[in-house]
Amino acid sequence: MPKNSSQLSGQIGENLVVAELGRRGIIATANIGANVKDIDVLAYKDGKTIAIQVKAYKTGSLRTEATTYLNIEYDEDTETQTILGKKKNIDRKLIWVIVKLGAFIGDDRFYICKKGKIQDLVYNEHKKFLKKHNGRRPRNPKSFDCSVEFKYLSDSLNDWSVIENQLVS
């Protein structure tokens, strides 16, 4: 796999999720269109359809923009960030599958949870990071990058019931 291809990682992740859902008796399709926000895979079983967001990573942690999930005030004078709270317009029930890609087939890990859990983790991790640095990011104060380590998702490892329960008639 090329070293810097997040697009290729995403494609692999989506197809691994589709394959695993198929093993579980769930019809699924990926690549539903690049213009569909928050939906990478559609899953269907017994007359019910659900949307799934897939994120795939070869290395590192779950990386995101904190402002996607949080209301953050940036003070130009002090170059500090203050978290004002969690955004309300987040679909906290949207199912996420985060794929940690392995080097070989079978080495992949799947973390299945709802977007609300991701929002909560981003809130906790960004708040902790800002507190450690007195509200000012050390390298780039204007950056809203946030990292969530996979250890905080350990209870979501292979929890396919999150999807299966949504497809029960």
Describe the structure.
The chain is α+β, with helices and mostly antiparallel strands. The chain has a single domain, classed as Trna Endonuclease, Chain: A, domain 1 (3-Layer(aba) Sandwich), CATH 3.40.1350.10. It contains three helices and nine strands, in the order αββββββββαβα. Strand 7 and strand 8 (109-114) form a beta hairpin.
CATH architecture: 3-Layer(aba) Sandwich
Q: What is the share of helical residues?
A: 10-25%
Text of the CATH class: Alpha Beta
Largest sheet: 5 strands, mixed
What is the CATH topology descriptor? Trna Endonuclease, Chain: A, domain 1
Low-confidence stretches: none
Q: Can you tell me the number of structural domains?
A: 1
Count of helical segments?
Answer: 3
Span between N and C termini?
Answer: 40 Å
Strand content: 25-35%
What is the general shape?
A: elongated
Mean pLDDT: 92
Q: TL;DR?
A:
This protein has 169 residues and is an alpha+beta fold. The chain has helices at residues 6-23, 115-132, 161-166; strands at residues 27-30, 41-45, 48-57, 62-65, 70-75, 80-86, 95-100, 109-114, 145-148.
Features:
169 residues, alpha+beta, Trna Endonuclease, Chain: A, domain 1, 5-stranded mixed beta sheet, two-stranded antiparallel ribbon, 3 helices, 25% helix
